[in-house]
């Protein structure tokens, strides 16, 4: 109960530091933040509720099977990092074992891993390897080293108040600016040595515990660390810090703001009079490109396809409609109808993989599949900062799991309440007697949790095969997806 | 007329209850209003309601005249289908009932001809025709795809014209059937029937010569009149025929079929599901759930269930939690209580949002789809999202299996797919309290998807498994070509 005021308090300074700082993030986050603020009491309550539940589940799980629980979570992170090396093993194993991290001491762990399978329902089909640690939803347990700006940012991440690869990266960089300017090198060490390993890494760890880092964030962190290491130890601290802050500003300006502008202008020229542009979910860059084309006086209309549970497309549709563009809005189930009317598909990206595949909001692959089946050009707008040397073949090995309780919105839970009397009586006995009519929407979640074999599964991204994509527009120009690794090399070596 | 509706929350159960006490005509009105208001929706409830109503229509029918009975069923059917043309099942059931009447008449005719009226063979040309026509027609329709193809265009009128008296198209099929019916009288049937195409108009100028456009609505009545005349003659000949009883018997069998089709489909489940399979399915379908449940008795597998938001997601979650469809709950509590949710059978069920289909598909072994209607070309109309699921499955070379009772199999040919798609309440996509959004943005909520035949690998009906390309044959088995246009 003590969390709500606290989170609010921290949220406020963060938004202040961000908003005036730079145009790009303000554009990207402004709306999300304002909505977050608007509904904050309700949302906080929900958050608290979910949190309590998570804690309860965690407690239960750790009670019953303390060892296996701590086992996977400890090396879960490690596993996530080197999941690149282990995927084959993960895949080839039959389902129940899949959850287990690839430990060499097979026989010992084999016994133990049966238990969590029964107790925690979080086996998550073949996504078991992604359930490494419970998502951080509060500041409880955060290390004291974590800067308040980062704390606030982390909570905004985990509540999706700041969402989207670019927005998250920019917000992180701005928060790092606050961290760096408040940083003081302890005596006996140099900034270049100490800052990265001792001061930045707990911040990054905290952010990671709130939501796994996005590709762009990883790239930005790598860039930042590079710069820090290159600082001459003899530079006075103030000067070094000023230099760092400047570098961050330059990074954001060059890789995001300027890149956005280039991509926007280039993409806007691809929209022709009479086009029906289809887009999926929301991407700040797609939004800007569409508005740019609209401002240029090109008559066209837009179809926004959206999906549960984030409904990011709703915001996009609203903004585009407010800009005076005629917008149609479909959910993903209607996408095959939406594609029929479209002439062009513009997609945002979370990342472009080095094998030309697009890693983006889950559902993107479906839309691009349908579009390419209809021979529509599929165009991806992506800043080169989102390019990665990682490769992916499917959406399973590397992905991000979202908490399964997010699958059902409050409204849907309420719709399910009348089912209470019909639940299998074996499980329902004690409930049916007790708080009968005063059914709470949280009960629905409990039913699902109680039902041993029923799982809700949710991931955030999917991988679109390269052959569905016709063009990738970056600040370096328009290229086929096969050129992604080349551009990635260009942009990192330059 | 709809007193039943005002007393209770209207739906299938109230309709079935009121059917027992209300006379036929108000009942027809009642069902029409329920269909129009979507208070009875989805294939099975529609089918059950229609059969129950038809049973009563036939039961109340006064007289022994087959032609009048056909006309009566047809008239009721026409009104029902025009009330809700997208519930194709209603039309299917009506056609099946019409087929029953014709079958009864035919059977009787077959029994009669050898022993009985010898003289009718040679002199009364028309009568001879009427006696043999139905059998021949049916055999032609099943064996000659050409004929079938020629019959198909008019199916469109079923949908596009809402069963109203559409002009020429309606008139074509009877003409064709009567051609073919003349064929066997001569020695060389094929040649003769081809000649018949041209010679026919001369023979019977009044009805047949001007089948197309220039005929005013009266042409239809004359044509059907002839048709009916024959049937009337027929029924006069066989006084002892218990037409009503046999047709009612047939409709009861149809009801049985509706009840047992799920079970019959489920019984082949073990032939299709192997151990440790990962099966993807969608929406809340009792047929699919029973199918999986049957397999779950013997095998362990994993089910991935798309929730089909926003169309049926509540029912989907409901069926997974309780094992039952919510809408059928109040009334069917008693008879169906035995079946439990899949999860109770030890099956791991994973609910995923629809957007995850592509991400998951690479690990799925089999896709099992429920359907709203199956069309004669092997395509199907199913809950929205089915197309992208089937397409993603195709991209991953995952087999797609469609479960459907034969009663959902429709003779309709999908020339205009959009006609078959119903659009639902946009408020379930974006709630109306978001007035600004609803005001500015065009929110669409298609309820159904059309899945072309090439995305489907197998149909499992209560008759067994079929390739999509074979469905036309089952259509031909179940519907008389005379009845394709109601």
TrEMBL record, chain A:
Superkingdom of this protein's organism: Eukaryota
Pfam families: IF-2B
Keywords recorded for this protein, A-Z: Cytoplasm, Initiation factor, Protein biosynthesis, Transferase
Biased composition (Basic and acidic residues): 43-54, 75-93, 110-121
Database matches in InterPro entries: IF-2B-related (IPR000649), IF_2B-like_C (IPR042529), NagB/RpiA_transferase-like (IPR037171)
GO MF term list: transferase activity; translation initiation factor activity
Main localization category: cytoplasm
Gene3D superfamilies referenced in this protein's UniProt entry, alphabetically: Translation initiation factor eif-2b, domain 2
Keyword flag Transferase: yes
Localization per record: Cytoplasm, Cytosol
Residue segments, region Disordered: 1-122
A GO cellular-component term linked to this record: cytosol
Subunit details: Component of the translation initiation factor 2B (eIF2B) complex which is a heterodecamer of two sets of five different subunits: alpha, beta, gamma, delta and epsilon. Subunits alpha, beta and delta comprise a regulatory subcomplex and subunits epsilon and gamma comprise a catalytic subcomplex. Within the complex, the hexameric regulatory complex resides at the center, with the two heterodimeric catalytic subcomplexes bound on opposite sides.
Family, per entry: Belongs to the eIF-2B alpha/beta/delta subunits family.
Name this protein carries in UniProt: Translation initiation factor eIF2B subunit delta
Species whose genome carries this gene: Setomelanomma holmii
Automatic annotation (TrEMBL), chain B:
Chain segments carrying region Disordered: 108-132
Keywords: Cytoplasm, Initiation factor, Protein biosynthesis
Keyword Protein biosynthesis attached: yes
Main localisation: cytoplasm
Pfam families reported in the protein's UniProt record: IF-2B
Biased composition range(s): Polar residues: 112-125
Source taxon at top rank: Eukaryota
Record-level GO cellular component terms: cytosol; eukaryotic translation initiation factor 2B complex
InterPro entries: eIF2B_beta_subunit, IF-2B-related, IF_2B-like_C, NagB/RpiA_transferase-like
Subcellular location: Cytoplasm, Cytosol
Subunit and partners: Component of the translation initiation factor 2B (eIF2B) complex which is a heterodecamer of two sets of five different subunits: alpha, beta, gamma, delta and epsilon. Subunits alpha, beta and delta comprise a regulatory subcomplex and subunits epsilon and gamma comprise a catalytic subcomplex. Within the complex, the hexameric regulatory complex resides at the center, with the two heterodimeric catalytic subcomplexes bound on opposite sides.
Designated name of the protein: Translation initiation factor eIF2B subunit beta
Organism: Setomelanomma holmii
């Amino acid at each position: 109960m003590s969390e709500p005021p606290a989170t609010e308090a921290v949220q406020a300074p963060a938004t202040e530091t961000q908003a005036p700082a730079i145009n790009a993030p303000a554009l990207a986050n402004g709306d999300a933040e304002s909505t977050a603020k608007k509904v904050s009491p309700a949302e906080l309550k929900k958050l608290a509720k979910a949190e309590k539940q998570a804690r309860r589940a965690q407690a239960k799980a750790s009670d019953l099977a303390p060892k296996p629980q701590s086992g996977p979570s400890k090396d879960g992170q490690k596993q996530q990092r080197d999941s690149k090396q282990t995927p084959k093993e993960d895949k080839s194993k039959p389902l129940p074992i899949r959850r287990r991290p690839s430990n060499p001491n097979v026989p010992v762990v084999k016994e133990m891993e049966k238990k969590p399978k029964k107790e925690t329902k979080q086996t998550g089909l073949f996504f078991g390897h992604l359930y490494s640690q419970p998502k951080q939803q509060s500041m409880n347990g955060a290390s004291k080293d974590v800067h308040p700006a980062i704390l606030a940012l982390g909570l905004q991440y985990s509540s999706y108040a700041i969402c989207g690869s670019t927005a998250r990266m920019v917000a992180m960089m701005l928060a790092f600016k606050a961290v760096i300017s408040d940083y003081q090198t302890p005596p006996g060490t140099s900034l270049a040595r100490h800052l990265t390993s001792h001061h930045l890494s707990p911040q990054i760890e905290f952010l990671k515990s709130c939501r796994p880092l996005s590709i762009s964030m990883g790239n930005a962190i790598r860039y930042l660390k590079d710069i820090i290491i290159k600082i001459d130890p003899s530079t006075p601290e103030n000067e070094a810090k000023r230099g760092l802050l400047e570098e961050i500003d330059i990074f954001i300006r060059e890789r995001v703001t300027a890149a956005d502008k280039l991509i926007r202008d280039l993409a806007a020229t691809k929209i022709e009079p009479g086009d029906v542009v289809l887009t999926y979910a929301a991407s700040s860059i797609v939004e800007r490109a569409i508005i740019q084309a609209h401002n240029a006086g090109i008559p066209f209309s837009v179809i926004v396809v959206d999906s549960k549970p984030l409904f990011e497309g709703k915001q996009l549709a609203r903004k585009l409609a407010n800009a005076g563009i005629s917008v149609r809005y479909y959910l993903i189930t209607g996408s095959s109808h939406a594609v029929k009317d479209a002439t062009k598909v513009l997609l945002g990206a979370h990342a472009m993989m080095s094998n030309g595949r697009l890693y983006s909001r889950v559902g993107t692959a479906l839309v691009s599949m349908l579009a390419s089946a209809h021979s529509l050009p599929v165009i991806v707008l992506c800043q080169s900062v989102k390019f990665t040397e990682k490769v992916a073949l499917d959406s399973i090995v590397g992905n991000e799991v979202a908490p399964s309780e997010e699958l059902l919105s409050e409204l849907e839970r309420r719709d399910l309440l009348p089912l209470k009397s019909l639940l299998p009586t074996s499980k329902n006995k004690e409930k049916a007697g007790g708080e009968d009519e005063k059914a709470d929407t949280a009960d629905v979640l409990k039913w699902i949790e109680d039902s041993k074999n029923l799982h809700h599964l949710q991931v955030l991204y999917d991988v679109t095969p390269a052959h569905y994509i016709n063009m990738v527009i970056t600040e370096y120009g328009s290229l086929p997806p096969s050129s992604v690794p080349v551009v990635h090399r260009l942009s990192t070596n330059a | 007329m709809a007193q039943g509706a005002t007393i209770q929350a209207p739906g299938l159960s109230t309709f079935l209850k009121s059917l027992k006490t209300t006379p036929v005509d108000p009942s027809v009105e009642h069902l029409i209003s329920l269909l129009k208001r979507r208070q009875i929706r989805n294939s099975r409830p529609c089918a059950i309601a229609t059969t129950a109503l038809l049973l009563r229509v036939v039961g109340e029918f006064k007289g022994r005249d087959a032609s009048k009975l056909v006309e009566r069923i047809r008239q009721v059917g026409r009104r029902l289908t025009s009330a809700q043309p997208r519930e194709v099942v209603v039309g299917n059931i009506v056609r099946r009932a019409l087929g029953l009447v014709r079958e009864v008449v035919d059977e009787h005719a077959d029994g009669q001809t050898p022993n009985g009226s010898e003289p009718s063979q040679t002199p009364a040309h028309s009568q001879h025709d009427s006696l043999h026509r139905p059998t021949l027609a049916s055999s032609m329709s099943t064996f000659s795809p050409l004929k079938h193809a020629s019959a198909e265009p008019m199916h469109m009128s079923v949908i596009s014209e809402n069963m109203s008296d559409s002009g020429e198209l309606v008139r074509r099929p009877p003409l064709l059937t009567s051609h073919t019916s003349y064929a066997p009288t001569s020695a060389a049937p094929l040649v003769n029937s081809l000649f018949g195409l041209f010679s026919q108009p001369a023979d019977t100028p009044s009805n047949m010569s001007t089948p197309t456009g220039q005929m005013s609505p009266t042409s239809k009545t004359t044509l059907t009149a002839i048709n009916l005349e024959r049937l009337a003659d027929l029924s006069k000949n066989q006084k002892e025929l218990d037409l009503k009883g046999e047709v009612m018997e047939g409709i009861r069998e149809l009801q049985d079929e509706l009840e047992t089709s799920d079970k019959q489909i489920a019984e082949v489940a073990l032939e299709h599901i192997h151990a440790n399979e990962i099966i993807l399915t969608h929406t809340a379908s009792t047929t699919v759930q029973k199918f999986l449940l049957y397999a779950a008795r013997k095998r362990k597998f994993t089910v991935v269930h798309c929730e089909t938001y926003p169309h049926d997601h509540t029912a989907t979650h409901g069926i997974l939690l309780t094992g039952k469809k919510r809408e059928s709950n109040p009334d069917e509590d008693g008879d169906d209580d035995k079946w439990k949710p899949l999860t109770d059978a030890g099956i791991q069920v994973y609910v995923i949002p629809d957007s995850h289909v592509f991400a998951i598909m690479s690990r799925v072994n089999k896709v099992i789809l429920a359907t709203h209607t199956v069309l004669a070309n092997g395509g199907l109309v199913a809950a929205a999202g089915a197309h992208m699921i089937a397409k993603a499955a195709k991209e991953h070379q995952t087999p797609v299996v469609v479960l459907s009772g034969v009663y959902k199999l429709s003779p309709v040919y999908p020339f205009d797919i959009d006609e078959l798609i119903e659009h639902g309440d946009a408020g379930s996509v974006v709630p109306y309290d978001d007035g600004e959004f609803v005001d500015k943005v065009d929110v669409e909520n298609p309820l159904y998807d059309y899945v072309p035949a090439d995305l489907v690998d197998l149909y499992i009906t209560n008759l067994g498994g079929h390739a999509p390309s074979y469905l036309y044959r089952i259509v031909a088995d179940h519907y008389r070509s005379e009845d394709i246009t109601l």
